[in-house]
Amino acid sequence: FQNPVKETFEMDMFRGEAIRIYDVSGKLFYLLNHSIEGFMTVKTNNWKPGTYLMQLITNKGEVEHISLVKK
Fold first, then answer.
1. Other residues' Cβ atoms within 10 Å of the Cβ of residue 44
2. 19: nearest Cα among 47, 51, 53, 56
3. How far is the C-alpha of 71 from the C-alpha of 63, rounded, in Å?
4. pLDDT in tens, 30-42
5. Is the pLDDT of residue 8 over 90?
6. Residue 68 in contact with residue 11, Cβ under 8 Å?
């Protein structure tokens, strides 16, 4: 996906993966458990501009951390 994001971003997800997004204070801001495979769209048009931490949890339990910037 393109980073920084503006209104939306898309991710190619696999069954059983999850996304957790935290704001700068560490508060869980967004949670998605994906039950099907394919592209998913996350709408960010109502998010405040700033930096967020995204955790992508794979269906094997591996965790990837991504810094996400909202313009």
1. 20
2. 56
3. 25
4. 998 887 888 889 9
5. yes
6. no
